[in-house]
Amino acid sequence: MSGPTDGWVQRRGLALLTDLYQLTMMAGHWKDQRTDQPVAFEYYFRNLPPQAGFAITAGLAPFLDYLENLRFEEDDVAYLDTLGIFDAGFLDFLRAFRPGCTVRAMPEGTLVYPYEPIVEVEGSLFEAQLLETALLNLLNYQTLIATKAARICLAADGEPVMEFGLRRAHGPDGGISGSRAAYIGGCSSSSNVLAGKVYGIPISGTHAHSWVMGFDSEIEAFRAFARHYPDRCTLLVDTYDTLESGVPNAIQVFRELHDAGQKIRPAIRLDSGDLAKLSKAAWQMMRDAGFEDPLIVASNDLEEDLIADLKRQGAKINAWGVGTHLITSHDCPAFNGVYKLASVYADGKWQPRIKISSNPEKATDPGRKQVYRYYNTDDEPIGDVMRLAGEDPHDTGRLEARPRTFTNRRVVLGEAARAEPLLQTVLAAGKRVAASPSIHAVRQRAQDQIHALPEEYTRLRNPEIYRVLLSDAAAELKEQLLNAPLGAQGCTHGRHERKPNLVSGGPALPPGLAVDCAHRIHLPVLRHPAVVHQAPVLRRRARW
Predict the structure, then answer these.
(1) d(C-alpha 540, C-alpha 526), whole Å
(2) How does DSSP assign 450-505, residue by residue?
(3) How many CB atoms lie within 10 A of CB 462?
């Protein structure tokens, strides 16, 4: 592909797509000569959108485009100089910067769940910190829209869903990124022509009410549209009166097309009124006219709950055009992905890091990790386990692991027939290891994974909670650092004595993970009754 949209689509010229504090932190590290400190950050999210049983990761390929093209151009540096914040030496450092990190990520189109790392960035402290804002911007929105699209498509139950959201999207990039994500989530096509050009998404559309209003009569407008587009003739029938004029006039035009030898499937669109009642009446009128398989497309502020309710009412709708509620994710307008430091390389080994919060669920899971998805003998996923880097995945047999907030408890996932490692190296030393898969392959991956889930995880209301757990070693590491986190130096509470493993017979930490804790800080212990009673009372959201 080539043309004037290349720079934008390939995410060039976006070095300043960042928050100011990223640059001030990096300038501080530069002054302290810490820019080359090796670190590992993780991208994950804390909560699914309301009533969702899963999310679909999307936005990785645009992020890799951004990363490969990341440069501080002269005009970027000149602008930063005008702020009067940064030293000339630091600005020279920015001019010379080129990406060199390694990125491991779950493939786009993978079903993902709270707190498991979706992307790991391993590289210099300077670079890994710089990438935070752009990564969150590029992945949060597309993951949100892909997830919303998947829910809408589940409600449509296999019938095509056309994404019509461009005019209500949050700006041009919200439109094109949203169209990309909606297609990954399962939409069959988009009205967005630029998205069709850039990504190869099928595009679709009908005509507006203004087309009909611009002619002296409705039937004249229908005849003109049918004459110009006989193979794409979907007629909008609610400009004046749906059942008294719109549908009868459309039937007349479809008869004329058939008489002229055009063997097309008669198709109408309803954009207002009682869609259930009107669709049933229109379908019967078209059947009575001899059209056995009419296509009835519905639009008008649709979302998954309304689609499900229309189907419950027996609406004769077999294609859906969804705009505002999809492209804006109207019921959940932001995705809560975060980017946290997981490990620092020092003294010849990786040293895990933890962020502690007064909310136990928000405490991070320390250390570099791999996420394994386990499947039963029917090849259905039974749960994910986060294991420390280098751990044995325990591919088969009885599978037990521990909740991330109650690390002394064991949970049985079931009998595992196989395990799939989800994080894959996609970028090494700043370069892609392979071309990103096509958007059609990404969409197919998402569809395959959704269809593999048992129905209790995909229902629109109160879906079963998919379990994401910690291995024994990962849980033991977290328990140690919760009581004596690395980096909390300077406290005066005496020397920390390592707590024994809380589970009898639990494993030691993997080689290379040293917890050199010399100090204790007083924290609420997660298993203390006072803390347990603070847990959410809604059992469905207690994510073991």
Answers:
(1) 20
(2) HHHS-GGGT-SSSPPPPPEEE-HHHHHHHHHHHHS-TT-TT--S-PPPPPPPSSTT
(3) 10
CA 543 to CA 124: how far, in whole Å?
A: 33
Q: pTM surpassing 0.85?
A: yes
The C-alpha angle with vertex 39 and arms to 107 and 9, in degrees rounded to 5, equals: 40
Residue 517's pLDDT is 39
pLDDT tens for 309-365 read 999 999 999 999 999 999 999 999 999 999 999 999 999 999 999 999 888 888 999
In the prediction, which pLDDT does 534 show? Answer: 34
Task: Specify the 3-state DSSP secondary structure of 41.
Answer: strand
Question: Distance (Å, rounded) from C-alpha 159 to C-alpha 163?
Answer: 13
* Cβ(157)–Cβ(318) below 8 Å: no
* Burial group, residue 107, by CB count within 10 angstroms (0-12, 13-18, 19+): middle
**Residues 87-123: tens digit of each pLDDT:** 999 999 999 999 999 999 999 999 999 999 999 999 9
User: Do residues 166 and 133 make contact, with C-beta atoms less than 8 angstroms apart?
Assistant: no
Nearest CA to 374 out of 421, 407, 411, 410 is that of 421
359-378 pLDDT tens trace: 888 899 999 999 999 999 99
> What is the reported pLDDT for 513?
54
Asked whether 440 and 202 are in contact (CB, 8 A), the reply is no
| Exposure letters 391-408 (e unless 16+ CB within 10 A, then b) | bebbeeeebebbbbbbbb
What percent of the chain lies above the pLDDT cut of 70? 88
Kindly tell me the burial class for residue 215, based on how many C-beta atoms sit within 10 Å of its own C-beta (0-12, 13-18, 19 or more): middle
Cβ neighbours, 10 Å, residue 418: 14
Largest CA distance in the chain: 93
* List of long-range contacts for 174-180, beta carbons under 8 Å, 24+ apart: 174/141, 174/327, 175/327, 176/9, 177/59, 177/62, 177/138, 177/141, 177/142, 177/145, 178/141, 178/142, 178/145, 178/326, 178/327, 179/327, 180/58, 180/62, 180/142, 180/439
